């Protein structure tokens, strides 16, 4: 079941490098007091006001001005431009100073960023990702730990018997069976074959699912970015068997966990897209939650409720003042990952999620009674006070 509705507001000589022992590396890896990120090759120090550009479909458009004293991580150096991540670039010119870390630090961070896999130990997770930012409940009755560094290198990982049982990530350095974020569908098929399932008969394809020997591998496809992989979700069959029904059982704890996870996913997405993260707004979340409850209880799906109130009316009635506002709604998606990635593939919803017109967001989730258990209703309200 898949429903969406849209509200638009608008990387001859021989040299031998010294071997670096992993024991000499600390986690995380720091360079001059700042964490060295996976995939980072250097940094730029701003000497004079300099323009940062956003790569939009191959065209460099103005994003913002970098000021003296600021510094930015560099992930690639191509054609006189340094790539800062999230589609942002800065031109190699006299107004900036480019620096690179030592070979030892680069070796350390490469060792730390080795891809995690289903069945890896809990110790490997903490060694490579550090301490979890948050923990939520998932639809299998297990705990999901959320890891990121200011929403970069985002991971959500669940354990079963002290081993990784599910893993969702948007980390561009992550690979599973040689496939990673930003690979195309063709590259995915070249690695894993064409024996997979998709989301029904939809085109373009939004999700490709492989039934691998020990786990299910879901590759989310960004239809607005040349159909490249935008995220990966792996789920061990043992974990899936803890909830054999398609839809999860209703619980207030799970509803709250979906809300938290969606908030985290929105900000992880904004970080990928190179826009500022949003703050959580409690009053706004209350308004969003009430709308999800209303839709689920009264069996309708619309931005306008049965009293004819728009999202703006409901925000105002909830005591929320705003200059800009927008709303996303969805239903029928069994977990927050599927809901979020589907919203990103719907252009109107995508605009809301990554818009710089908003500074706050509130998320509300409600599980309504359904023939096969319960079905989630999702509401996301975006505002700028």
How would you name the CATH homologous superfamily of the largest domain?
CAP
What is the overall silhouette?
globular
Largest sheet: 8 strands, antiparallel
What's the CATH architecture of the largest domain? Answer: 3-Layer(aba) Sandwich
- Please report which band the strand proportion falls in: under 5%, 5-15%, 15-25%, 25-35%, 35-45% or over 45%: 35-45%
**What name does the CATH topology of the largest domain carry?**
Pathogenesis-related Protein p14a
Number of helices: 9
State Rg.
22 Å
- Briefly, what CATH class of the largest domain? Alpha Beta
| Domain tally | 3
Strand order of the largest sheet: 12-13-14-15-21-20-19-18
Task: State the end-to-end distance.
Answer: 35 Å
What average pLDDT do the residues reach? Answer: 88
Q: Summarize the amount of helix as a percent range.
A: 10-25%
Structural class: alpha+beta
Find the count of extended strands (DSSP E, 2+ residues): 25
Protein model, in words:
The N terminus is likely disordered. A hairpin with a 2-residue loop joins strand 14 and strand 15. The protein has three domains: 80 residues, no CATH class; 128 residues, Pathogenesis-related Protein p14a; 133 residues, CAP (Pathogenesis-related Protein p14a). It has nine helices and 25 strands. The longest helix has 22 residues. Helix 5 packs parallel to helix 8. The chain is globular, with a radius of gyration of 22 Å. The strands form six sheets. It has an eight-stranded antiparallel sheet, sandwiched between helices. The protein has a five-stranded mixed sheet with strand order 1-23-25-24-22. It is of the alpha+beta class and 385 residues long. 24% of the residues lie in helices and 35% in strands. The two termini are 35 Å apart.
């Amino acid at each position: 079941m898949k429903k969406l509705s849209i509200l638009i507001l608008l990387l001859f000589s021989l040299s031998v490098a010294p071997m670096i022992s992993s024991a000499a590396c600390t986690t995380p890896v720091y360079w001059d007091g700042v964490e060295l990120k996976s995939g980072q090759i250097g940094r730029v120090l701003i000497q004079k006001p300099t323009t940062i550009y956003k790569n939009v479909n191959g065209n460099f458009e103005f994003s913002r001005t970098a000021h003296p004293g600021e510094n930015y991580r560099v992930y690639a150096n191509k054609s006189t431009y340094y790539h800062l991540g999230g589609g942002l670039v800065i031109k190699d010119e006299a107004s900036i100073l480019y620096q690179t870390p030592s070979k030892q630090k680069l070796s350390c961070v490469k060792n730390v960023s080795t891809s995690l896999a289903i069945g890896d130990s809990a110790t490997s997770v903490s060694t490579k990702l550090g301490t979890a930012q948050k923990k939520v409940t998932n639809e299998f009755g297990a705990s999901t730990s959320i890891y990121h560094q200011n929403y970069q290198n985002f991971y959500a990982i669940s354990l079963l018997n002290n081993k990784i049982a599910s893993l969702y990530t948007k980390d561009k350095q992550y690979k599973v069976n040689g496939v990673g974020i930003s690979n195309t569908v063709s590259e995915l098929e070249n690695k894993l074959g064409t024996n997979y399932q998709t989301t029904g008969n939809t085109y373009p394809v939004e999700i490709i699912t492989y039934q691998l020997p020990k786990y299910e591998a879901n590759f989310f496809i960004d239809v607005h970015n040349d159909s490249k992989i935008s995220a990966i979700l792996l789920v061990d069959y043992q974990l899936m068997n803890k909830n054999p029904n398609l839809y999860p059982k209703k619980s207030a704890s799970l509803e709250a966990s979906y809300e938290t996870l969606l908030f985290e996913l929105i900000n992880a997405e904004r970080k990928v897209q190179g826009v500022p993260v949003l703050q959580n707004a409690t009053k706004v979340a209350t308004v969003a939650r009430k709308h999800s409850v209303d839709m689920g209880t009264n069996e309708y799906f619309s931005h306008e409720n049965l009293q004819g109130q728009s999202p703006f009316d409901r925000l105002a009635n909830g005591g929320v003042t705003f200059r800009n506002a927008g709303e996303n709604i969805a239903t029928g998606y069994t977990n927050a990952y599927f809901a979020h990635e589907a919203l990103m593939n719907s252009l109107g919803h995508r605009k809301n999620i990554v818009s710089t017109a908003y500074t706050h967001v509130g998320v509300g989730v409600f599980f309504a009674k359904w023939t096969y258990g319960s079905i989630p209703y999702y509401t996301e309200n975006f505002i700028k006070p």
